[in-house]
Design goal:
The structure is a homodimer of 279-residue chains.
Chain A lengths: L6 E3 L9 E4 L1 H10 L7 E5 L5 E9 L4 E10 L7 E5 L4 H13 L4 E2 L2 E2 L10 H15 L6 E2 L3 E2 H6 L6 E5 L8 H6 L17 H8 L16 E5 L7 H9 L3 E4 L8 H15 L6
Parallel strand pairs in A: 1-3, 6-7, 6-12, 7-9, 8-10, 11-12, 11-13
Antiparallel strand pairs in A: 2-5, 3-4, 4-5
Helix pairs in contact in A: 2-3, 2-8
Chain lengths: 279, 279
């Protein structure tokens, strides 16, 4: 198997003929860990200019100079999908962030709820994890990670038009696949009587074109996925969420999932049914 | 929030009036970690007799006697879904096992492929992790975990009627949601021209009952999900997989997922579209 050239996220602009010097950790990674030498290829992205091939032109002990050559992929828009996780223990939380980046989120916005296990997170460290996950997963951008905010504040200035998926453990909400593909009202109830499951897709198939028309196009509306802490949300928080105009509640099945599992499951389903897994 | 009584997996039979004595680690967990006392309630399951309430009748330093009282849930059949993971580094592999149990797998059968990072796993330790995850997730059974076997052996005596989902990173396979819900041939190609996405569900809706009939029932066929190691499968292995009569290939989107992420994503989608998340 031929190994693809290593990929690195850089901050500066990328264009043909530019040169840049990597910082020590990245120079160490390329030269010592990956054992690259002058003349070897790498790939670079910065979240704005697409992906570029570059060549090592200067390899000293602690420094590595690169010359940018040609664009290998145009910048994509990516998915407009936020993850709003309640901070849990550090290990599983960092793991959740890594997986969320692999699964294509555009932003990570921690929320402090009543049962949150921590009110602070190390956003610098999370950003390092996010950069590595973006490099590894062939993404063209690194999601923004903001400082934690109280749930009430997040809900108070919630952007209009962005749906907020509330992963509800109470057993009262409809299944997640119904919510993502069916027509739901803002309380998370599936509205359509016929074809609750895959309602919108069914509409696409039975609609103007009738059977034989193409499946419904991917949902281009912005979404966010809210993941509660261990112990879930308080009765008061649940009430406030259910009353919020942008919130749709969904169930993630009959078993109790840990917060990190729930986040990965919900993000995967969103990508598979509404996001860029649909090809 | 009222905390539910702790749940423990036990090996022996459960019926009303039986008494049992816990081993040291479990006695320590209940009495020291959870701080339970004589008279307090716990819940027990053994994978065969459902879930039972029990009461602590004897609490000494290193021992804990329980009296089984009443059945609180009948035994369910569970999903017939295997995970076939290629062993990866210990941390992510144990994590994958924990998540697979939360997501309802009935068996974990590690496969040794050409690029496998390890050929041995500690099945005793994995079983301990699986028991804890089953207790935590409110499952009524603990999945069987067998010793790793070479991929070729697994394929040679593959049980007829069990579909084997091959998570294919080549970009040639159809999206996973199509494969799980559409009609696919054994090479993983979606056969139906109309309504590729959600084909079977559409059949359910447009079939005998026409629009308005109930969605197709959950798929009761046994499935297995094969997850490759870092670096994926070799060209030879890929050829053999694609030629196998039970294998269906599917794509998990445009980004490169780590093996543990891929496993959790595929299991979540299976549960949401074919398994017990459909309510």
């Amino acid at each position: 198997m031929t190994r693809a050239a290593p990929r690195l996220f850089v901050e500066g602009p990328l264009s043909s003929g530019r040169t840049l010097t990597l910082d020590k950790p990245r120079a160490h990674y390329l030269l010592t860990v990956m054992r690259l030498k002058t003349g070897d290829s790498v790939r670079l992205f910065n979240g704005r200019d697409g992906e570029w091939s570059a060549r090592i032109i200067d390899a000293a002990r602690d420094t590595c100079g690169l010359a940018v050559e040609a664009r290998t992929r145009p910048q994509d828009k990516g998915c407009d999908l936020w993850l709003l996780p309640s901070p849990i223990k550090r290990g599983p939380f960092e793991f959740m962030v890594e997986k969320a980046v692999e699964l294509g989120v555009s932003g990570i916005r921690p929320v402090i709820s009543e049962h949150a296990q921590r009110s602070k997170v190390n956003t610098d460290r999370l950003r390092t994890i996010a950069i590595e996950a973006a490099e590894q997963s062939e993404r063209l951008s690194v999601p923004e990670i903001i400082e934690p905010r109280p749930l009430a504040d997040q809900l108070a200035d919630w952007p209009g038009g962005r749906r907020l998926l509330f992963c509800d453990e109470s057993g009262e909400a409809p299944p997640l696949a119904d919510v993502l593909t069916g027509r739901t009202d803002t309380a998370g109830k599936v509205v359509s009587g016929v074809g609750q499951l895959f309602g919108d897709v069914l509409d696409g198939l039975l609609g103007p074109g009738g059977p034989g028309s193409a499946p419904a196009p991917p949902d281009r509306n912005p979404w966010a996925i809210l993941i509660g802490p261990e112990g879930g949300f308080s009765p008061d928080e649940r009430k406030r969420l259910r009353a919020h105009g942008s919130v749709v509640a969904a169930s993630l099945g009959p078993r109790v999932l840990r917060a990190d599992t729930a986040a990965i499951a919900a993000l995967s389903l969103w990508q598979a049914l509404l996001g860029d897994w649909r090809g």
